[in-house]
Give the backbone structure.
Amino acid sequence: MGPLSLPRKVTVLGSTGSIGVSTLDLFAQAKVEVEVVALAAGRNVELLADQALQWRPQLAVIEDESALPRLRERLAGSGVRTAAGSAAVVEAAAADAQWVMSAIVGFAGLAPTLAAAKAGAIVALANKESLICAGPGLLRAAKLAGGVVIPVDSEHSAIFQVFSPSNAQHVARLILTASGGPFRAWTREQMARATPEQALAHPNWSMGAKISVDSATMMNKGLEVIEAAYLFAMPPERVEVLIHPQSIVHSLVEYADGSTLAQLGPPDMRAPIACAFAWPDRLPWPAQKLDLARCGPLSFEDPDLDRFPALRVAKSALTAGGVAPTAMNAADEVAVAAFLGRRIGFLDIAATVEETLIRMDRQNLLWRAENDLVEAARSTDATARRVAEEVVGGLMAPA
């Protein structure tokens, strides 16, 4: 085996979240020689400081400005420059790195991801909202700068690995697999009484609160449908979802000749991170190997759109186009926060998102065209949050 051609200078945005921690853990386990240019986190100043002391980046950024004094205290004498605030996160994203992990959760990840793309870096994309809110524009920016966007979500990484761009015209369907979440076999009546604790108990993956709830509603899969359509330039009707509770088959690509290619592996996010880091090479590391003889039967089923309407809402937003996906994402963030705060019930999440889109469409707020990509998304995001809060305010919290 010849020497690998790997990025040397790396930045990790969202370094204290599950993806960021997994990224740094992968570097350690694979024993790759990397120079960490920058680390950026939201509020977890203690973990960020620990990471900075271990990896010695040029810059450590905490978005929460009130945490900057503590970060400076922890890193005094280390030689690591510190900064705080959203502008500093964008600065970190645009720093001189060859490879940038974009793992900031939520809309806050859009501007830094776009900055990394415009800097010509290889962007390992784990921030859904960047594609949802600015997909085509983000991909254009990366291409113009000579960079590339490689998906890190396990489903999109799976498609990326078996999708042949030269045969794109012969792709019949992209099939995203979904575990079904913790409520896969629940009735609507049971889901109506679901608690935040139950929604957060994902059967296969260890994730943050927002993405765990999105998995429970299957909005996460709806967002992934939009991402896949943008990433692989596929029309909405050729992107489908298949329930696969074991999370072994991560996604499939069906070609016009009847061949269906799938990528399989244990549910470990370090595998798609390794793929994004080394592509088109493969990174040797002590990964768990898939033992098909012992993993048990693999099952598949169609999603139930009556019990999981978020999939239908997301497909409608993708078909509508414009800024509808941006509005949908913002409304979902509001609704999930309201559910976690016990202000609304579980079934109210998708209902809130759908009602927000209906009201914005009625008020002609989904078609505003603006030149600035981030500002257009930010304006839509702010409007959708306001409308979604109005919808939430009109709902009764569960008894």
Remarks:
- Residues 373-393 form the longest helix (21 residues).
- Residues 71 and 202 are 33 Å apart (CA to CA).
- The mean pLDDT is 92.
